[in-house]
Structure formats: structure tokens, C-alpha cells
């Protein structure tokens, strides 16, 4: 199989335009408002939500990126799991998806078939339908989905409504970006690469299904901006979040690689963006890097009342064994995020 990685310069969610730059551009956009548009891009949430009937809203999202692994089938699965994730993180159920394909004319067309089969597997696993797409030639391969789902408008899991007193749960291990950087540098341990690939391919569906019987205050998925920037978005103006650095789940080798400065430009962009908002305390450097590390198809990060946090964690751990309670919500403090 021809190398996907040698045909692209940056892959996965680490290639996202930085949060600072994105919000500058979006601030110049006209405001689109309508009483049926329950969540638009002004909220910087995971997906748009539009109400179409008293008890029904549609949730809509799009995501695509370049390969971060060489195996075409795996890349397809990862890109689709990542795109579907934003529907789960809003509390929705995926209904149907469209393929977005950019592919170099010089590359074998069979590899594209493999990418699309990987994506189709995940769409089937999600219980959704593939119903079309769009495909163009481009210098580098890119793949993703536009996904439409449904949800109950009274049960939207917004990303910025945590309640002081809540606890915070993270459902997948951190360190994906660091392990992928080590893979590109050809120094990654095979076990770490397999852990990263299976985590990226894993649908957030299973954790989300466990969450539906609990009063979730806020939820997002951890992607290119890293845990701390997503936490900052969640904190908003009405809360501060405490992150327990010693409780974070991560791929063990990723901490070693970070200690060896195998870090990414995207993580440094995330660190610079967070400068004034986070109090890192005495947190060791490698753990800091794990919290700034861009995740591709990362886990759900959610805020839930303390009274049911342990019960929800146990339920999620039945399907995501590495899920942990990683912090708590406080009323606003000097810093938006306090790492302890
Ligand atoms: N070019 C764009 N035009 C309009 N809105 C945009 C554009 N790019 C991003 N957004 C919006 O900015 C917000 C943040 O985008 P971002 O892609 O980080 O969210 P996300 O979809 O949750 O990320 P991820 O897919 O990595 O989980 C979202 O509301 C998104 O719709
Ligand atoms: Mg998201």
C-alpha cells in the first residue's frame, strides 16, 4: 500500500486553524439568528442545532482532515469516528452522513476505496446511513464527513454550561498527538501506536449512550485544541474548572515522549492561546504537554452533578475502561482553569 503519510504535511485535528485565529476571523462574520437556531457558530459549540418540531431538533456538523496514519482503512475509520463525535457530544443520534473527499490524482485509487470503506464501517456502527458526498482532486488526501443527527431540543448538551459543584469526566486517554508525532519521527513504540489508533477509531457513541440517563450539565469532545482549551471553552464566564493532573488518563508512552520534547507545533499554539487563562501550578512539564496535546477523535469531556458523578463514571467505565473523574467545577476564580 502506498504511504498516505508521505503524501501529506500535517494530519488529524492537529492541522486545525488555531483557536485564537479562528475566533478572530469568525468575529468578523455577520450574525445569523433565528428562533429555531438553538446553537449557531457564535456559541463555538461542537455542532449546530436547529429545531424543526416541538420535540425534535436536527444537529449538523462537518469535519475532515489529512491522514495521521499510513493504513487507509484505519484513516477512514478515524476520520468518520471524529466527524460523528460532534453529534454525540451534543447529545444527539447520527441519522445520515455525506463523504467529503480530496484526493491526489497521482495516488492509487484503491487506497481511496479503502478510506471510504473504513468510513462506511463507522457510519454503519453508528446506526446511520451514508447517502452521498463530494470528491475533488487536491495536492494532499483529506477525508471526513458532514453528519446530520437528531436530538431532543430540551436535552442539548452544550459545551459551556457547567454548574459549580459538578465533577468532570474524561472518557478517553490523552496523548494521541504526541504518539502520532513520535510515529512521524519513527521513534514510536508499536504498542503506543496501536493504543492511539484504537482510541481514535472508537466511537463516542458508547459513552454517550451511558450518559443519556444522567442530568449532564455540559459536554464537549476533546480534539485539536487540547484538553485545556476545551476546558476553557467549557468554563465560560460563569465558572472555573479545576483539573486534577494526577487523575488524567493518558497513553503511558506519551508522557515519556513529551518528557523527551517530542511535541507538536499545534500543542505550542494551544499553550500560547491559553497563556492568561490557566494556572498550571506545579504541574510537571510532560503532564502539561498532555493537556495541551491536540487530540484526533478524542474522548468526551463532561460536567455532571457530584451526586451522580461516581455512578455515571462506573457506567461509562463498562464501555470506556480508561474513563476517569478528572476535575471539578468552581464559581469563577482568578483563573479560568486551575490545574492541581
Ligand atoms: N470556517 C468557518 N465558518 C463558520 N464557522 C466555523 C468555521 N470554522 C469553524 N467554525 C465554527 O467554529 C466553532 C468551533 O469550531 P471547531 O471546528 O473547533 O469545533 P468542533 O467542530 O467542535 O471541533 P471538532 O470537530 O474538532 O470537535 C464551531 O461552532 C464551528 O461551527
Ligand atoms: Mg467538537
From TrEMBL:
Its source organism is Desulfosporosinus orientis (strain ATCC 19365 / DSM 765 / NCIMB 8382 / VKM B-1628 / Singapore I)
What's the family? Belongs to the selenophosphate synthase 1 family. Class I subfamily.
One GO cellular component, as annotated? cytoplasm
Recorded protein name is Selenide, water dikinase
**Gene3D superfamilies given for it?**
PurM-like C-terminal domain, PurM-like, N-terminal domain
Q: Which sites are catalytic?
A: 13
> What does the subunit comment say?
Homodimer.
> So which cofactors does this thing need?
Mg(2+)
Residues reported to bind ATP = 16, 43-45, 63, 86, 133-135
Q: Which GO terms describe its biological process?
A: selenocysteine biosynthetic process
Amino acid at each position: 500500500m502506498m504511504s498516505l503519510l508521505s503524501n501529506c504535511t500535517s494530519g488529524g485535528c492537529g492541522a486545525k486553524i488555531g483557536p485564537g485565529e479562528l475566533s478572530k476571523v469568525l468575529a468578523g462574520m455577520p450574525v445569523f439568528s433565528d428562533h429555531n437556531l438553538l446553537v449557531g457558530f457564535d456559541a463555538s459549540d461542537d455542532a449546530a442545532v436547529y429545531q424543526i418540531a416541538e420535540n425534535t431538533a436536527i444537529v449538523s456538523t462537518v469535519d475532515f482532515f489529512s491522514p495521521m496514519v499510513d493504513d487507509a482503512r484505519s484513516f477512514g475509520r478515524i476520520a468518520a469516528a471524529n466527524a460523528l463525535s460532534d453529534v454525540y457530544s451534543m447529545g444527539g443520534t447520527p441519522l445520515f452522513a455525506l463523504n467529503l473527499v480530496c484526493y491526489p490524482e497521482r495516488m492509487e485509487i484503491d487506497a481511496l476505496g479503502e478510506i471510504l470503506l473504513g468510513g462506511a464501517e463507522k457510519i454503519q456502527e453508528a446506526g446511520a446511513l451514508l447517502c452521498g458526498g463530494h470528491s475533488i482532486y487536491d495536492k494532499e488526501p483529506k477525508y471526513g464527513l458532514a453528519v446530520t443527527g437528531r436530538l431532543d431540543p430540551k436535552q442539548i448538551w452544550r459545551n459551556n454550561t457547567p454548574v459549580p459543584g459538578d465533577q468532570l469526566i474524561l472518557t478517553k486517554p490523552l496523548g494521541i498527538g504526541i504518539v502520532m508525532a513520535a510515529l512521524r519521527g519513527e521513534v514510536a513504540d508499536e504498542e503506543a501506536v496501536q493504543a492511539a489508533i484504537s482510541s481514535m477509531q472508537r466511537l463516542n457513541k458508547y459513552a454517550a449512550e451511558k450518559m443519556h440517563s444522567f442530568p449532564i450539565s455540559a459536554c464537549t469532545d476533546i480534539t485539536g485544541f487540547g484538553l485545556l482549551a476545551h476546558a476553557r471553552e467549557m468554563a465560560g464566564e460563569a465558572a472555573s474548572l479545576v483539573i486534577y493532573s494526577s487523575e488524567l488518563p493518558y497513553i503511558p508512552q506519551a508522557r515519556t515522549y513529551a518528557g523527551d520534547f517530542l511535541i507538536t507545533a499545534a500543542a505550542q499554539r494551544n499553550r500560547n492561546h491559553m497563556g492568561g487563562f490557566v494556572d498550571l501550578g506545579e504541574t510537571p512539564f510532560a503532564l502539561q504537554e498532555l493537556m495541551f496535546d491536540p487530540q484526533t477523535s478524542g474522548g468526551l469531556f463532561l460536567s455532571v452533578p457530584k451526586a451522580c458523578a461516581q455512578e455515571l463514571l462506573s457506567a461509562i467505565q463498562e464501555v470506556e475502561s480508561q474513563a476517569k473523574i478528572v476535575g471539578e467545577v468552581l464559581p469563577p476564580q482568578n483563573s479560568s482553569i486551575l490545574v492541581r
